[in-house]
Automatic annotation (TrEMBL):
It is a multi-pass membrane protein. GO terms for cellular component: plasma membrane. It comes from Amphiprion ocellaris (Clown anemonefish). The gene is ANO7. One of its GO terms (molecular function) is protein dimerization activity. It is found in: Cell membrane; Membrane. Its main location: membrane. The keyword Nucleotidyltransferase does not apply. This is Anoctamin. Keywords: Cell membrane, Glycoprotein, Membrane, Transmembrane, Transmembrane helix.
Length: 798
């Protein structure tokens, strides 16, 4: 019997944001795009009865699917998922509606769904959404705006963005206190669009479609198995500005973000963070707040670094080694170490202000729910000792065993970059060629390890999304830290250290250890940093801009190829009015913020850990971040499908990682100055031999032993080191060793002491924010108390 094949893409679950008064419901914009490859044949006829039963449930869908009743289990999973979602309340005829838009000739189906008001209220209380109590009148200004406002000076960075979102005192939603909340009489606008997306995604993510033990739960798993092609909320209209210009307050939120944020002309303006949060959610808004804050703080660091480089450039006319190895590097190292400590402290304050303004201060402690995948796959439930509610539970001992197994895999993977160090030194042809090859290996290994880390973290079964992301980030960062920093660390602290001397060279695996060039190891280190740091930034920017354009072009080309089956009139009408759900399907999937954070944090490490070797690193980072902000803004507004809004209290585990890098930077710069640079030997020679440094080069060179000279026809050889003619260390070597160790101790103690003083003097939460938090808690308590009194009065009257 002949077997027929058909490729069918089903766009399912579009939740429209529209409203109807007088007993109607509020519907929500949310799109789930499904795709599956189905085989048709008589040997699949037993599945016909199941399909016929499903078609009876949704008659409108049945008329289109009934000709294809022999389907593979892939369709059964999608159908079962739809039925279970209906049980959650989506497909009830009396309260919800399903709208199916089928384009038969294009083999594409769009299903538009809506959810009832009662379902929204139930899950809003279930996932602890915060809703407004009262408007906050005080304007939300950043520190620079406040300073310029007090001085009555104009602010060239500000811009008047239309329709600014209001700031509210809020508390957690309760259905029995609905009348106490601001705007509760307007059901169509009471919940924000991002909150509605969160509610609906929570339902879809926890709905099983097969065996729970096998992890067949939720829409994300179906997307990964290609049963569905994608899942995304709808954008709010087109981002392009209307052709006849309209007043700014008449623009949509997406158009406002495009006009006042995503365009390149906005590079010197404040980012509209409240608008970003209103459209994309708190997690994405916090990322842009972080990178914007970091970029502003790079201005003084890049200025000082550029001045130090120019000083070294002038001195390099006499000796090339002084380009990066001069007295200014000591000042730059101290300055950048203190800069990093101060920057993190003030970011902590800025983050606390944003978390309060965006109602996320207690998100991780009181509001965050278990991950839907964890809820569905947890083997047991336990009673919460605080709330008394039954909650899903995964045994800690079992999770610990899985975590230890993951650690063993991480150790094996981390050993891969380390094993390249000696090999790369042995086969090194030229420094630049080796640096470029090292960058290629780094990028290839990164792709493999990220996929492995994601699988391991999912296997460990972490309860909350924050914990899941923190453990995933930690795994990847450990590998990336070694992957990107292993080569610079080798050049900075090991290259040229264990070479030996003529006649007694040290070897490893039969290969002589590598020595530094005539200009010292700092020049090699600066070259390595520039290639890795600048090269990685260029590659990432090219990928984000050109590769994204190519993907979008290819996606649209595939859709246009499908349209060729239609006649010219249909194509013409289609091009005039493209539905929003289909226009969004042509966009690319948002890959999350992990790569964006990782790129910025690794950059932070390069400009702090090795700044003594490359004073221009902060300047390159500043230029890159200016471009990065515009590229990311343009991607999210114009190139990406709208992601599901996620809440976040801070930037997560990235902040402890930044603190770790800051501490490593202090120690690294101390060792770089003490052992890699010639600053301390020059200082020692200046105060013990000659203040003009005449004869300093000869002072740092030793003469080869007599045995070596005799073997080479009495030729004398000079090499870098403090040894006598027998190869033994001179007293000057031990004097310098004591000075170097003393310098490291003094350097790190002074920097850590000043950093601790800054930490004590600058509170984590500003005083005005603490007052707002107390005011909000008081209002929430008053709302609860009044509701209790009203309830008690009603009972007594009855």
């Amino acid at each position: 019997m002949e077997v027929f094949c058909l490729f069918c893409v089903v766009l399912c679950f579009v939740f429209l944001t529209n409203f109807l008064c007088c007993g109607h419901f509020v519907s929500i914009n949310f799109v789930l795009f499904m795709s599956f490859l189905s085989l048709f044949g008589t040997f699949l006829s037993p599945l016909c009865n199941f399909v016929t039963y499903f078609c009876c449930l949704v008659s409108r869908f049945c008329r289109l699917v009934s000709p294809f009743c022999h389907l593979v289990p892939c369709f059964c999973r999608s159908a079962l998922f739809c039925r279970l979602s209906a049980a959650a309340g989506f497909f009830l005829n009396d309260t919800c509606r399903i709208r199916v838009v089928l384009l038969e000739k294009k083999k594409t189906s769009f299903v538009l769904l809506s959810a009832p008001w009662s379902l929204l209220c139930y899950y809003a209380e279930e996932i602890s959404l915060r809703v407004p109590l009262q408007v906050v009148e005080a304007p939300n200004l950043n520190s620079s705006e406040q300073v310029l406002s007090k001085l009555s000076l104009p602010n060239p960075l500000s811009q008047d963005v239309p329709n600014p979102p209001a700031d509210y005192y809020t508390c957690q939603f309760r259905t029995n206190k609905l009348q106490r909340f601001l705007g509760s009489d307007h059901q169509e606008t009471f919940f924000k669009t991002t909150q509605r997306h969160q509610v609906l995604y929570e339902i879809l993510a926890r709905t099983p479609y097969g065996s729970v033990k096998k992890g067949e739960v939720g829409i994300d798993r179906l997307v990964s198995e290609q049963v569905f092609t994608a899942a995304y909320p709808l954008h709010q209209g087109d981002f392009r500005l209307p052709s006849p210009p309209v007043p700014p307050h008449c623009l949509g939120l997406r158009q406002i973000l495009y006009a006042y944020w995503a365009q390149w002309s906005c590079w010197r303006r404040y980012q509209p963070l409240d608008h970003i949060r209103e459209y994309f959610g708190e997690k994405i808004a916090l990322y842009f707040a972080w990178i914007g804050f970091y970029t502003v703080w790079l201005l003084p660091a890049s200025l000082v670094g550029t001045v130090i480089f120019l000083i070294g450039f002038v001195q390099a006319k006499q000796r090339a080694g002084l380009l990066f190895d001069n007295g200014g590097t000591v000042f730059l190292s101290v300055f950048l170490s203190l800069w990093a400590v101060t920057f993190l402290q003030y970011w902590k304050r800025r983050c606390s202000v944003l978390a309060h303004c965006w109602d996320c201060s207690d998100f991780e402690d009181t509001e965050e729910r278990p991950r839907p995948e964890f809820t569905a796959m947890a083997p047991m439930t336990v009673r919460n000792p605080v709330t008394g509610a039954e909650e899903p539970y995964f045994p800690e001992q079992k999770r610990l065993n899985r975590t230890l197994t993951s650690c063993m895999v991480i150790i094996i993977m981390v050993g891969t970059p380390c094993s390249r160090l000696h090999i790369s030194a042995a086969v090194r042809i030229t420094s630049i060629t080796a640096s470029v090859l090292n960058l290629v290996v780094i990028l290839l290994l990164s792709k493999v390890y990220i996929a492995l880390a994601r699988v391991l973290t999912r296997w460990e079964m972490h309860r909350t999304q924050t914990k899941y992301e923190d453990m995933f980030i930690l795994k990847v960062f450990i590998f990336q830290f070694v992957n990107f920093y292993s080569s610079p660390v080798y050049i900075a602290f090991f290259k040229g250290r264990f070479v030996g001397y003529p006649g007694n060279y040290n070897t490893m695996f039969g290969v002589r250890n590598e020595d530094c060039g005539a200009g010292g190891c700092l020049i090699d280190l600066a070259q390595e940093l520039l290639v890795i740091m600048v090269g990685k930034q260029l590659i990432n920017n090219i990928q984000e801009f050109f590769l994204l354009k190519v993907k979008s072009w290819w996606q649209k080309r595939k859709l246009n190829h499908q349209k060729k089956e239609e006649d010219e009139e249909e194509v013409h009408n289609y091009q005039e009015e493209v539905p929003q759900w289909e226009a969004d399907y042509q966009l690319q999937v948002c890959g999350g913020l992990f790569d964006e954070y990782l790129e910025t944090v690794l950059q932070f490490g390069f400009i702090t850990i090795f700044v003594a070797a490359c004073p221009l690193a902060p300047l390159f980072a500043l230029i890159n971040n200016w471009v990065e902000i515009r590229l990311d803004a343009h991607k999210f507004v114009t190139e990406y499908r709208r992601p599901v809004a996620e809440r976040a209290q801070d930037i997560g585990i990235w902040f402890p990682i930044l603190q770790f890098i800051t501490h490593m930077a202090v120690l690294s710069n101390a060792f770089l100055i003490a052992f890699t640079s010639s600053f301390l030997p020059r200082l020692y020679y200046r105060y013990t031999r000659d203040s003009t440094l005449r004869g300093f080069i000869s002072f740092t060179l030793a003469t080869s032993p007599h045995t070596f000279s005799q073997q080479h026809h009495n030729a004398s050889c000079r090499y870098r080191g403090f040894r006598d003619e027998n190869g033994e260390y001179l007293p000057e070597y031990f004097h310098l060793l004591a000075i170097r160790l003393g310098f490291i101790i003094v350097f790190e103690h002074v920097v850590f002491f000043i950093g601790r003083l800054i930490d004590l003097m600058v509170p984590d939460i500003p005083e005005e924010v603490e007052l707002k938090i107390k005011r909000e808690h008081y209002m929430a308590k008053e709302a609860l108390a009044e509701n209790q009194v009203q309830t008690l009065t009603c009972h007594q009257s009855v």
